[in-house]
Write a structure and sequence with these properties.
Elements (H helix, E strand, L loop, with lengths): L1 H28 L24 E2 L1 H8 L3 H9 L9 E3 L2 E5 H13 L1
Antiparallel strand pairs: 1-3, 2-3
């Protein structure tokens, strides 16, 4: 009986690892930024490899209250005319400072 329970437990653990890795890889492939916190012995607080003013659609979506995919669709469909962004290849890139200035200008209008 113990061997059967151990086998079932290992089978369940293996299946959950495979499913979570598939979900994670699909999210990375779509370019979604993963949220959450990592705990461990490393510290990224002083890392300056990426300019903090540069935003991908996920970050811009947070400022604007948009889902990243909807944000891109609305930009491409002309619903967000005048929104400041740069397109490099298939990637939309936003400046946090310029985007915030754009939002404030819309509030003042």
């Amino acid at each position: 009986m113990k061997k059967n329970l151990l086998f079932i437990g290992m089978l369940f653990l293996g299946a959950s690892m495979i499913i979570s890795s598939l979900i994670l890889s699909a999210s990375i492939k779509q370019g979604n930024q993963l949220t959450g916190s990592l705990t461990g012995s490393f510290n990224m607080a002083g890392y300056s490899g990426i300019d903090s003013d540069i935003l991908m659609p996920y970050g811009a979506g947070i400022i604007l209250g948009y889902d990243p995919d909807t944000l891109i669709q609305d930009i491409e469909n002309g619903k967000l005319e005048g929104i400041p962004f740069t397109k490099i290849g298939d990637n939309y890139i936003f400046s946090k400072k310029v985007l915030e200035e754009w939002v404030y200008s819309k509030i003042e209008d």
